[in-house]
Write a structure and sequence with these properties.
This protein is α+β, with helices and mostly antiparallel strands. The protein has eleven helices and twelve strands.
Length: 386
């Protein structure tokens, strides 16, 4: 049951398609938003009891449920309470870690929104669950065709059937408000179940569908990221990145979430740098700022009348020039403050032993052939003389 709740292998109904480990990989990479229980090895955490567990459903949907006195472990398939009927999910987190997750998401243990778990899923529950899963792919294509026939400007990105097969949820994205009442009527006649339409954003859509980012790893929104913060172009400017929409945009079409990861570090580091709008006045002319290297703490300047030559100056020396300009003093030339990079000595490799030639074995063979010829020639002479 390794891929019973992940999107990539959910349709196969038994084993995940990715790592071929049959759902037993140690990293839990078959599941989206997988949580590592780092408190499982602690004795206090293992002995303490928590009546609430986290249950994972399809893709990135997770909810908290009361155990209702049932002894449950991570990985158990359970039947959970819903507004009507029941749903099937997999236990993703138990114990003390659930309390931490609830505290992060701002959910109180006595909240009325927390439903209960009916029982551990039996064979009939799992059989219905798999039948519902098998209907999802074809239902999504049917829903997309129906939306196109009704002329609705919307994109249906995912379909999720309830565990008991009595309800189907359609996740869609749209730029404007969509009147899908007629669509629901037509789909209800085809599917013979209750229809729920749920609008999601483009970032949530990318998280549900998944994929590989430009970095070569799985998308953060589909593996661990749950807090979708706004990303602005100023984050790229602080990190000295070129404002290129094709490179800065993710698969969702918006700016990459990873631009915010190191933003605070860059902002703290750049506080010590002089303003890039500051001009350096010298007797030779006025110099303009062109670029900054935060790691090397260098700032490049060019003269207004000679913009082809960049002059790298350390940050401390730039502050010194700015202080001189404030006092009405002007240095002769920025070249006096330029950081001269001493080229590293490249140690040339010397063939001391004389065994680096590729053809050294060929030479040995040639010498041995020559020796054999000489020996053979001597034998012939000795025979003639005898």
């Amino acid at each position: 049951m390794g891929c019973g709740g992940c999107s990539t292998g959910r349709s196969c109904g038994s084993t995940p398609k990715g790592c071929k480990n049959n759902g037993s990989c140690g990293t839990g990479g078959c599941n989206k938003l997988n949580v590592f229980d780092w408190l499982s090895g602690m004795s206090e955490a293992s002995t303490s009891k928590n009546s609430i567990v986290e249950v994972r459903f399809k893709n990135t949907r997770k909810e908290f449920f009361h155990t209702n006195g049932i002894s449950l472990n991570k990985g158990d398939i359970v039947a959970t309470e819903t507004q009507s009927g029941h749903d099937i999910g997999v236990i993703s987190t138990t114990g003390e870690l659930v309390k931490i997750q609830m505290r992060i998401k701002g959910i109180k243990p006595d909240s009325k929104d927390i439903r209960k778990i009916y029982r551990k899923a039996n064979e009939n529950d799992i059989e219905k669950w798999h039948k519902s899963i098998e209907r999802e792919k074809e239902s999504m294509y049917t829903a997309r065709r129906a939306a196109k026939d009704h002329g609705l400007q919307m994109k249906i990105s995912d379909v999720e059937f309830q565990g008991d097969g009595t309800k189907v949820t359609l996740y869609y994205t749209a730029d404007d408000r969509v009147d899908f009442r007629e669509l629901i009527k037509s789909l209800a006649e085809k599917f013979k179940v209750r229809i729920e339409m749920r609008q999601i954003g483009t970032r949530q859509e990318a998280g549900r569908l998944g994929g590989i980012g430009s970095c070569g790893r799985e998308l953060c929104c589909s593996t661990w990221l749950t807090d979708f913060r706004t990303v602005s172009t100023s984050a790229a400017k602080y990190q000295q990145l070129s404002i290129n929409p094709t490179k800065l945009a993710g698969q969702c079409g918006k700016l990459k979430c990873c631009l915010n990861y190191e933003l605070e570090t860059y902002m703290d580091a750049i506080k010590d740098f002089p303003s890039s709008d500051e001009r350096l006045v010298t007797k030779k002319g006025v110099a303009l700022h062109m670029k900054t290297d935060i790691f090397k703490r260098l700032m490049w300047y060019v003269y207004e009348d000679a913009r082809e030559s960049f002059i790298p100056i350390p940050v401390d020396r730039v502050k010194e020039i700015v202080a001189m300009n404030g006092k009405g003093k002007y240095p002769d030339d920025l070249k006096n403050f330029e950081k001269v990079e001493i080229p590293e000595k490249v140690v040339e490799y010397e063939n001391v032993v004389g065994q680096d030639s590729i053809t050294r074995f060929d030479r040995k063979n040639n010498n041995s052939k020559k020796k054999k010829k000489k020996r053979f020639g001597r034998r012939k002479k000795d025979k003639r003389n005898s």
